[in-house]
Fold this protein.
Amino acid sequence: MIKFAYIRYIFVSLLLYVTAPNLLYAAPFDLCPTEAFLSQYNNNATHYKSVDLSTGAVSTIQIDDNLGSDSVNAIAFNETDRYIYGFNKQLLSLVRFDRDFKATVLPFKNPPANNFYVADISNNKYYFYRWNIGLFYTTLDASDPDYLTIKQVIGANQSMGIADFAFHPIDGNLYAVESLTGDLYQINPTDGSATVVANTGFTASGSAFGAAYFDILGNLYFVRNNDGNVYRTDITDPNNISGATVYFAQAAPTTSTAGARCARAPVISSNTDYGDAPDSYGTTLANNGARHLINYHNHFLGSSIDAESDARIYPSSDESVSIKDEDGIIFKTSLIPGLDAQVNVVVGGEATSYLNAWFDWNRDGDFNDANERAINGLQLLPGSHDVLFRVPDGATPGASWSRFRLGSIADISNNGGYVYGEVEDYQINITTANTTYLYYPSKYDFVTIAYEDMWPEIGDYDFNDVLMYYRVTLVIQNSKIARIDVSGQLAAYGADYSNGFAIKLPGIARSQINEGLIKLRHNGLVLQDETPLEQGQSNAVVVITENLKHTFLKSNCGLSFYRTELGCANNDLFTFDITIPFITPINFSAMPAMPLDPFIFGSENRSRNDFYGSTMPGRAFEVHLADMPVTDLGSTSYFGQHDDRSLPPSRTYRDERNLPWAIEVGSQWTPAYEGTDISIAYPDFINFILSDGQQNTDWFNHPITNKTYQ
């Protein structure tokens, strides 16, 4: 007796061949696609969609898969042949989809009695699961005698309330999130054993986590059906799973869905706008930064918006490679604790949008504290608007950050991805009454301080051993200086040796500084346990870091240098800012000259160049700008040694040609390649120095391009 199901298989297969014989030979997907895929049953047909996981944007690919009203679930991507496979609920068969999501029916040799809606593929085998039924698999290798033969994983856990699972690209296990509990399961595909390894903190009560995906790093993404929320769980180290999970983006809500993705593909951004605050605020894609899919006609701030593949965080910005698009917010008042403040907001385009804004009132490097969401889902028509908000009484005076997000959705978070909108991050200053600011060199610019660290030897004289972008802000209250703020970024590190970085305030006694209120931040995060005001100094000296080499990862080329060698880029970023308040505000006449006295010093228990032999000079080794004295903890015994021709106290850190070991450049400057003398990379430099700064004053604007770091 021929069962009806088999007759239907034959009929469908013949129909497909007769009407479209090329479907059986349709093209697979190109390589390993970076987007995720969804199957969703809608209006008596299965619709297939792609998902940009970075923003949640959903695009429909196909609404006619050649299967009529049959519904397909449990889809999975096969890296072996680059087709997607799914389970046909009506035929109880496997189907294969080409890159246009046209289906070819592949009948099982031993059809199951039940529908399945959980599946993924590994090593050319399709694994599928159902609660209270079990875990099964079939090979997709047509040359295998067991091709399309269903086999059960005997003894597999059958009690998991999961709606999809995905294979980890590294450890080969399956992972899934249970809808009711939020528990994260690790499933061994060989014996089906399942272990709860963590809890994600998110549930899908009354719904399901209907789609699960991995990226190449080992991050698991799972989608909640009823609201389309995409969550990300860090499983980059399968041996150390914390369950730390964040809202990541928002896709389209649905009542039924299944997901497929090439797990060895990265999640990438396209046509996306990011902020540029320090990454502690959630800025880069890796840190689930604030981002929007761009609609160039609506839902943007000001008049301009541009796309980035990832955030360029402070002090860099996307303006360095594109247009100036942070143009939607103007601060019309100071930010004074306890008072109302006002910003002017320009809504571009022609659509009504929603404005949300966050302020880091306590200056701890995030927007997650109480009262830091200052504007909440404010509906605004296109055009210019003056918007009021309250600065909390407890806001901490000083430099900080704000984030404005305008978009098509009212209720959004300060990070994560959303469709249609723009994010603009702004530096702010929280002030007290009668507070103004003076900036060196300006509010938005930096000077560059560059050092040679082989003093008293000249060395290769490439001036990239330590390269620091540097800015000073004077906080003025009632015509006196109440606080000094310094911020900067490590721009390059071409030193073999370990160097710390510190700033001396010449003529300012250590006792004048309010040590209890000093706040030092690295990469936007407050160093709670640090005491940056150095002991044993008569003048105030603040230590930014004891060892700059600890602020970036070793690269795969050179001697673990940082942005000094051709083809050896390093994406690490080290920024700092420090607040140095006075116990009693000082007069302008007592203020030291700019740029104060930034210097490098030797890290303890680290060797140096040949001059020192087996001796480790440690903290006593200091390199300052020319003609600056050492601090109380620095050694004067190296003056006049080897290449140094210092004549303290008026002439220091100069050689016989008057060339220094540290220079200040009046802009964000690009250094010479490692081992390239600065006079080769910048031919006008020597004349500038020998003329005592009177000639070739713009020497740094005339590099030999192939001799400087690009």
Summary: The radius of gyration is 31 Å.
